[in-house]
Amino acid sequence: MLQLKNWDNKTWLSSDSYINAFNSFLLKKKKLNKNSKILDIGCGRGKIIGSLSRKFKLLDKPIGIDPIVHKDVDKSIDFRDQDIFKFFKINNHKFDLIMIKQTLHFFNKSKRKELIKTCKNNLKKNGVLIILSLNTSKNEIPCFQLMKRKLNRGLVRDSIMLNSANKMLKNTKIDKFKYEVSITKDKYIKMLKQRYISCLINLTKNQINKGINEIKRNYPNKIIFNDILICIKYKYS
Ligand SMILES: C[S@@+](CC[C@H](N)C(=O)[O-])C[C@H]1O[C@@H](n2cnc3c(N)ncnc32)[C@H](O)[C@@H]1O
Questions:
Q1: Percentage of residues in the chain having pLDDT higher than 90
Q2: In-domain check, residue 201
Q3: Ligand 1, residues 41, 66, 74: which to mutate, most atoms within 8 A of Cβ?
Q4: 26, part of any domain
Q5: Which of 26, 69, 106, 191 for a ligand 1 pocket mutation test, highest count of atoms within 8 Å of Cβ?
Q6: Which residues are paired to 79 by β-bridges?
Q7: How many CA atoms lie within 13 A of 58 on its CB side?
């Protein structure tokens, strides 16, 4: 299995600014209060739901599921490194919000179908399932050539994945979350070295180093771009 360990390891994806912007977007999709029950599938370090947990003083800590146990996982979440299907088998509450953010592509086609169906069945009335994935066209993520080819191949697969998720769910609302990233080239190179994104995981050290030299040549010292996600919202009513 791919192991993505540095996605939210002190990157823009775990910055207060990103989390605040993302959570304001999320709260337009689903209103929450202290009684809300939240599940985040593929939560990483759990910074997003951790922030919601503190903001709403949630009575039940939001549950975050991820196979990777980080030392710095957010303290305000109920983290479980459990297989999601095993979790659903033993779990006995329904959720107001289930989020699958930039994680659905880690499941194969049949598991994805099963996951979406199971999430639907585990929503409370008026509960919401939110699926987010990288924007599949005109993606602005700074890339070297090989990374771009890998990313684009992944995005073609993601586009098929999102279409079929959308067909399965029916009556969805589709929207985009856009965040302007401003990052120094040095910091971005560090993220590339740490293979922050799935399309870098299987590259060799040599391929990464060559790619970094390309980034050094082709990008300015301050890199500015839009990180855009497609959001599918399904509401159980
Ligand atoms: C791109 S990161 C997204 C993290 C977080 N959702 C966010 O947006 O900040 C994908 C996450 O999915 C997790 N993941 C991979 N396979 C998974 C699985 N089978 N079940 C749950 N999470 C998984 C990875 O460990 C990683 O933390």
A1: 95
A2: no
A3: 66
A4: yes
A5: 106
A6: 64
A7: 23
